[in-house]
Write a structure and sequence with these properties.
16 helices; alpha/beta; about 450 residues; Udp-n-acetylmuramoylalanyl-d-glutamate--2,6- Diaminopimelate Ligase, Chain: A, domain 1; UDP-N-acetylmuramoyl-L-alanine:D-glutamate ligase; 20 strands
Length: about 450
């Protein structure tokens, strides 16, 4: 990795005092984890609920870090130069912003209530065939994650950075650090409502990524999203995509949902994507539209069949007797409805079974949104519904009130009892959709069935 700053420059960015006579020493990089430190790097000591980076200064010294950025008033550590600051998380963002300013490459920022990781991964898959691409690892999309991603900028041609949020002002903060040249908002849905209040609050938060664009910036816009469609900016170039709206730059049509994935037509080309769900047509269109800024559409579409989706996101797993659709990475009402549609359209030899858990961070709307999701499930062609968690009992109630046979609906507070009951229901040829918020760890049920089926 190329040197980013001298120690003196780093101290100036951090708003700290001078580092002395060796201030002109160039650093090789910055690490926030002592496990990743290399000789000649600076250790930035972050703090959190369950850890404190200051406790690892001796480890940083042993790995020959040349300095550490620490919160005031950290005591001296013999043999390790300290740069003391008021707030190490803010300093991390300040350093990342200064580092970002050294690059004139395209920087693509992606946010939205659902689909941002899929769009990011799909674009990285496409563009990396021709360019050296820096992409956010996994879904590290908060203030710390965005800064950490930017600090990895080196001799890259394009950066694709995912931007998440669960509180007001987080996207605006990250956009100021990121300085995107292209912005994508996948959609606006009821997510993280504990911090963002309602869908209009989500819109106000997410749209900051578009409003941060400079004069030459480009907004890749989902014009089918009813809230995003209301936003227009005279000074920002827009590339639109969708399925239903008129006058779209990239319109998906002729959509077929198959067991192997999706087929649809865009720009008179047939796209084949090995993902389930109509929402992934939108994700694909976003990736195609944005990638078209850098590559020919024919080449882009030709790369889509080789894309491998992220695990635990409508991931199809064949146990030999029955099929599991693993959608346990996260859940909110919008992704829940998308998963239901995918289950309804998935070719099935026998029964469709839905196993779902609590959707978290919905604030005062939680009970109603779980109940409404249950009523929606009742309208879907499913044979059994099992719920896990206190909030998810509202899904069961909504399904029964929506007309589903109460003898085919069960709620559990014990995951092992749910698993045992599920084993008694599943037969050869069944398809089981398992879904829940990250905190509910529903992949434990998936893993048990997969492990047991391979022994």
């Amino acid at each position: 990795m190329k040197p980013k700053f001298t120690l003196s420059e780093l101290a100036d960015i951090a708003g700290a005092e001078s580092v002395g006579t060796d201030g002109n020493l160039k650093i090789r990089g910055i690490s926030t984890d002592t496990r990743d430190i290399r000789e000649g790097e600076v250790f930035l000591a972050l703090g959190g609920e369950n850890f404190n980076g200051v406790n690892f200064l001796e480890d940083a010294k042993k790995k020959r870090a040349i300095a550490a950025i620490v919160p005031k008033p950290t005591e001296e550590v013999k043999g390790l130069k300290l740069i003391r600051v008021e707030n190490t998380k803010k300093t991390l963002s300040d350093i990342a912003k200064a580092h970002r300013a050294k690059f004139s490459i395209p920087v693509i920022g992606i946010t939205g209530s659902n689909g941002k990781t899929t769009v990011k991964d799909m674009m990285a898959h496409i563009l990396s065939k021709r360019f050296k691409v820096l992409a956010t690892e996994e879904n590290y999309n908060n203030k710390v994650g965005v800064a950490q991603a930017l600090l990895k900028l080196d001799d890259h041609d394009i950066a694709i950075i995912e931007v998440g949020t669960n509180s007001i002002g987080e996207v605006s903060h990250n956009a100021e650090v990121l300085k995107p040249t292209v912005s994508i908002i996948t959609n606006i849905g009821p997510s993280h409502l504990e911090g963002l209040r309602d869908k209009n609050g989500v819109l106000s938060e997410k749209i900051a990524l578009v409003e941060s664009l400079g004069r030459d910036g480009v907004w890749v816009k989902n014009r089918d999203d009813e809230l995003l469609a209301t936003k227009e900016y005279e000074n920002i170039k827009t590339i639109s995509y969708g399925i239903e709206a008129e006058e779209l730059d990239f319109k998906g049509s002729g959509i077929r949902e198959l067991r192997s994935g999706l087929e649809f037509t865009v720009k008179e080309r047939v796209a084949k994507v090995p993902l389930l769900g109509i929402h992934n047509v939108y994700n694909s269109l976003a990736a195609i539209a944005c990638s078209s800024l850098f590559m020919d559409v024919t080449d882009i579409v030709g790369m889509l069949p080789g894309f491998k989706g992220t695990s635990m996101r409508l991931e199809v797993l064949d146990t030999g007797n029955f099929t599991i659709i693993n959608d346990t990475y996260n859940s909110n009402p919008l992704s829940f409805s998308c998963a239901l549609r995918a289950l309804r359209n998935f070719p099935v030899e026998a029964k469709r079974v839905l196993v779902c858990a609590d959707m978290l961070e919905l604030g005062r709307f939680s009970d109603k949104m779980h109940y409404d999701s249950g009523r929606l499930a009742a309208k879907t062609d499913i044979d059994y519904l099992m719920t896990f968690g206190e909030r998810a009992t509202n899904i069961a109630e909504g399904a029964i009130k929506g007309g589903m046979d109460k003898n085919r609906v069960n709620s559990f507070q014990d995951k092992h009892k749910l698993e045992s009951s599920l084993r008694n229901i599943i037969k050869k040829g069944d398809v089981v959709l398992i879904k829940g918020s990250r905190g509910m760890k529903m992949e434990e049920i998936v893993n048990c069935f997969i492990t047991c089926s391979t022994h």
